[in-house]
């Protein structure tokens, strides 16, 4: 393999890594309404990249004909520069993405020099012919196809209609503090609160990046002390490191504990020092895992589970309970699995189902407590508005389904078969106690929320999945 081919393979690898790791997994750009213009640039670049790779795979350009792929490469370069400008204006890139872009730019320069070398060193007759099929051509063909698929996906994402339902608690402007405002649930809440004219502050580990997510409309800070003497009408505490993902080692459990329990305790301690005119509302996130993964009942008055998840949720809620003594009305949201297109568990499951990977876990009979994101927003609105609403509320849909039924419904929603099953034993070997979150679950009930006469916007799983497109 010549120098040009090595550089091209390296460039393709870097581009694929950037797309998968940053655009899809960590940044999830397709789920961000503010990144529609960036997605449009990505779509143009990926489609052009696919065309260019396809030509290089099957056509041998010599002499002046080298200027044809060079012109396509120049257009791709202009699109990339426009994309860089858009990125800097709309979001704060993580360090790994900036480093990767720098390496790609350096390699693109070397690639361009290697491309032009035949024109300057030993000019050849201007000819164009079909290339013989080999491993290099096969590699470029596959990558061209993947680039085209990525481009079409970004094009569809860029064309998705913007959310029309942008109001939340529209009666009067409120001063709102949100922790975890850059996450899946938090970011959508912030957008709706800002759209309703509320004054929103966000406690975030990355305040500059979070501020750019909301075009500077929200005040962002990274220390509780930065709250100062500011008084808030509503505080929504959603902060917490992801529970599913890394194994629950001792160090990981400490991260999960500190990001929830310690932060909540410190926040409540600070709030207790602030003067209050009215009775503000403190909304505390928790999870259905409060009852323990093997609980037989999940009524709000039931005790917490004895497993790590149950004890983590219980300690999280207990830390928030101290806010009552400071004169706040406390609402605890024991969330089921939240379904939405902007993030959370559904996009990766849906992507897997598109490729026929929808899988029943274990025997599939474990409950799957779920709720649509719209109903999370609606429940928060109803509970905040109702002055009699206090204490814990299970936030899950009234339709009870098990994991196998959810998987079949998901596969049906994307018109794919469901045939895979993952046995429980290897999952327990690989994930340890964390596997219980996937293989067992308390039954889903929402009695207190229904007693508040909340009308679910998506009461059935079929309707929720349809709403998620």
TrEMBL record:
Entry keyword annotation includes Membrane: yes
PANTHER family, sorted: EPIMERASE FAMILY PROTEIN SDR39U1, SUGAR NUCLEOTIDE EPIMERASE RELATED
Superkingdom of the source species: Bacteria
Segments crossing the lipid bilayer: 39-59, 65-86, 98-116, 136-156, 176-194
Domain called NAD-dependent epimerase/dehydratase: residue spans: 176-395
Family statement drawn from the similarity comment of this UniProt entry: Belongs to the NAD(P)-dependent epimerase/dehydratase family. SDR39U1 subfamily.
Protein name: TIGR01777 family protein
NCBIfam families in the cross-refs: yfcH
Domain annotation DUF1731: ranges: 422-467
Cleaved signal peptide residues: none
């Amino acid at each position: 393999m010549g120098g040009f081919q090595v550089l091209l393979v390296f460039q393709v690898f870097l581009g694929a890594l950037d797309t998968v790791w940053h655009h899809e997994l960590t940044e999830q750009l397709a789920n961000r309404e503010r990144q529609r213009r960036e997605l449009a640039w990505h779509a143009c670049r990926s489609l052009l990249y696919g065309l260019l790779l396809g030509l290089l795979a099957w056509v041998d350009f010599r002499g002046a004909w080298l200027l044809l792929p060079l012109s396509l490469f120049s257009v791709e370069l202009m699109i990339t520069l426009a994309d860089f400008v858009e990125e800097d204006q709309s979001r704060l890139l993580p360090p790994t993405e900036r480093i990767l872009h720098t390496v790609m730019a350096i390699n693109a320069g070397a690639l361009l020099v290697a491309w032009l070398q035949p024109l300057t060193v030993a000019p050849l007759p201007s000819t164009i012919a079909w290339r013989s099929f080999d491993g290099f051509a096969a590699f470029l063909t596959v990558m061209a196809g993947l680039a085209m698929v990525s481009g079409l996906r970004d094009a569809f994402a860029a064309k998705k209609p913007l959310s029309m339902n942008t109001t939340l608690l529209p009666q009067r402007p409120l001063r709102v503090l949100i922790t975890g405002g850059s996450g899946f649930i938090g970011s959508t809440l912030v957008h709706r609160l800002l759209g309703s004219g509320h004054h929103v502050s966000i406690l975030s580990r990355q305040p500059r990046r979070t501020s750019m997510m909301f075009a500077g409309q929200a005040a962002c800070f990274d220390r509780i002390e930065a709250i100062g003497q500011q008084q808030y009408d509503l505080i929504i505490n959603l902060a917490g490191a992801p529970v599913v993902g890394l194994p629950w080692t001792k160090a990981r459990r400490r991260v999960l504990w500190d990001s929830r329990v310690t932060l909540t305790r410190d926040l409540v301690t600070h709030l207790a020092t602030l003067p209050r005119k009215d009775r503000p509302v403190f909304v505390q996130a928790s999870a259905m895992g409060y009852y323990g993964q093997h609980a037989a009942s999940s009524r709000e008055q039931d005790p917490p589970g004895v497993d790590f998840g149950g004890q983590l949720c219980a300690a999280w809620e207990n830390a928030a309970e101290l806010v009552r003594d400071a004169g706040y009305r406390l609402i605890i949201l024991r969330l089921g699995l939240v379904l939405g297109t902007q993030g959370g568990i559904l996009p990766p499951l849906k992507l897997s189902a598109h490729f026929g990977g929808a899988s029943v876990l274990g025997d599939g009979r474990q409950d799957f407590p779920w709720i649509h994101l719209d109903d999370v927003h609606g429940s928060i609105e109803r509970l905040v508005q109702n002055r009699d609403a206090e204490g814990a509320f299970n936030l899950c849909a009234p339709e009870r389904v098990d994991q196998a039924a959810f998987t079949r419904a998901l596969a049906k929603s994307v018109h794919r078969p469901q045939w895979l099953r993952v046995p429980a034993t290897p999952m327990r070997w690989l994930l340890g106690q964390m596997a219980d979150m996937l293989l067992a679950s308390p039954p889903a009930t929402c009695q207190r929320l229904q007693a508040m006469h909340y009308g679910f916007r998506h009461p059935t799983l079929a309707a929720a999945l349809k709403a998620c497109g």
